Amino acid sequence: MVQATEAACAMPAKHLPLLLLLLLAPAASISIQTEQPHPSNTSLSSRLSTAQSREKTLIQRLVSRYKDVGLLGRPVMNSSDLITIEFGLAIIQILDLDENRQLLRTNCWLRYTWRDPLLSWDSWAGSQFENITQVRLFPYDVWTPDIRLHNFADERLLEKRMARVVVYSDGTVLWIPQALFKSTCPVEIEFFPFDTQVCFLEFGSWTYDVTQLNLTWFGFEYEQFKYEPNPYVDFTNYIKSNEWYSDGQDEFRTRPSMRSRQIRSRIRCTNRTYQAANGQLYNRTYKRLEYKIRMHRNPHFYLSILVLPCILLSCLTWVIFWLPPESPAKTQLGMNIFVAFFILLLLLAETTPSSVRTFPLIGYFYCLNMVTITLSTFLATLVINLYIRAEKQGRLHPLLRRALLEGLGRMFLIRQAYPLADKQQQQQHQEQQQSPTR
Ligand SMILES: *[C@@H]1O[C@H](CO)[C@@H](O)[C@H](O)[C@H]1NC(C)=O
Ligand SMILES: *[C@@H]1O[C@H](CO)[C@@H](O)[C@H](O)[C@H]1NC(C)=O
Ligand SMILES: *[C@@H]1O[C@H](CO)[C@@H](O)[C@H](O)[C@H]1NC(C)=O
Ligand SMILES: *[C@@H]1O[C@H](CO)[C@@H](O)[C@H](O)[C@H]1NC(C)=O
Ligand SMILES: *[C@@H]1O[C@H](CO)[C@@H](O)[C@H](O)[C@H]1NC(C)=O
Ligand SMILES: *[C@@H]1O[C@H](CO)[C@@H](O)[C@H](O)[C@H]1NC(C)=O
Predict the structure, then answer these.
(1) Topology of the domain covering 301-394
(2) Which ligand 1 atom is the nearest neighbour of the CA of 37?
(3) Where are the domains of the chain?
(4) Could you tell me the distance, in angstroms and rounded to a whole number, from the CA of residue 55 to the centre of ligand 3?
(5) Which of 76, 80, 83 should be mutated for ligand 2, with most atoms under 8 A from CB?
(6) If both were cysteines, with which of 70, 127, 209, 299 could 122 make a disulfide (CB 3.0 to 4.6 Å apart)?
């Protein structure tokens, strides 16, 4: 054994020179190659300078033009001009609605378009950049609007994935970044699991007010190339969610002006008053686009774990009242149903938020059933107690007997098989009074 291991260890040592040779061989060949002059050195560089460069020179020119004027400042010719940003929201996926923390996670595409006079060039025939109608630039090389999600609720500070901007020769810029948003959403679960949630996503410029930036809806060209602004969340590329059904997913082909089911988004303005250093007050109005998404919960899962057991158990609650009180099965069944309802209530508590304004109605129903069963069991036990006590002591206290048989018995229209005690006593009294006179 020892010899064998020694031999194994010795193996690499023997072959070491060979290995070294093998390792060095490629390096040597590389060094040999680099020493050789490149045959197509001149022709390659000349090809680069003619064919490829028209687009590259255009981009270089656009970027350097931007470098000269600086990235900051809106791309307008006159500082009193408004820049109009068309903004659109396309939803790709509803990832999750966290009812407990009231957060909605969505996968979205944002669409921006605006006109930037600094990014226009001549593309007509005969000009230097003939046939180049569009180029792609990095968004950090050009001015981009600071439109933010206002009801943002994310730990990550960066919301967008970097995407290049597409620039057309007339200066129109199209920018479609992808983003995963986590936004606040007021959750109402009164009708859980048949509930409908309306979540909103509010976008607006964080710093520019209406005198500097005009925010409007992103437009589409629908049939017959009719351009229409789209004040709805776009569901064209939507991937259907298993848990949520949204109105928009069946209506995305309809023209915006013909849509009826989706909630129309609206423009909201807020006025803020600021105080300048010299004490002068001035008002600023900020414009925001409020997109709304209506989602209906798919109740199939909850139907089988929360609703169906509840219906069956409610039927059993009725059955309890058919059992005679002296049967021990009555209390046993009652307690079993009670425990079953309690488990359902725990299940419900797990799936619904614990801090809400309205408790789900189905939860109230469970509680009511539990109250009914408790009362039934309590009364059955009372009846058994009275029954056993009557057997032992022979006679019920007259007051209790009167209250139970005359008061409650009449109230619940129970047939009275035997005369009441005091009536018997009265009869006896009468008989006793009559007998001496005889
Ligand atoms: C070939 O390219 C090298 C650098 O890549 C350059 O120094 C050299 O001048 C070029 N040769 C010719 C003939 O242009
Ligand atoms: C900018 O616009 C204002 C008002 O529209 C106008 O009075 C002014 O002449 C313009 N300035 C330039 C440089 O065009
Ligand atoms: C531009 O396109 C036209 C038609 O496709 C073509 O005839 C012309 O040669 C193109 N010009 C350049 C510079 O590529
Ligand atoms: C903003 O743009 C929209 C659409 O282009 C236009 O109807 C509206 O008048 C503009 N608002 C201002 C204040 O210019
Ligand atoms: C904000 O101010 C504008 C005028 O500056 C006014 O027309 C608008 O009604 C105000 N909006 C609100 C919500 O106060
Ligand atoms: C700003 O708005 C307030 C009311 O919201 C109004 O009283 C005030 O006059 C406004 N100031 C200016 C400079 O418009």
Answers:
(1) Methane Monooxygenase Hydroxylase; Chain G, domain 1 (1.20.58)
(2) 1
(3) 64-298, 301-394
(4) 14
(5) 80
(6) 127
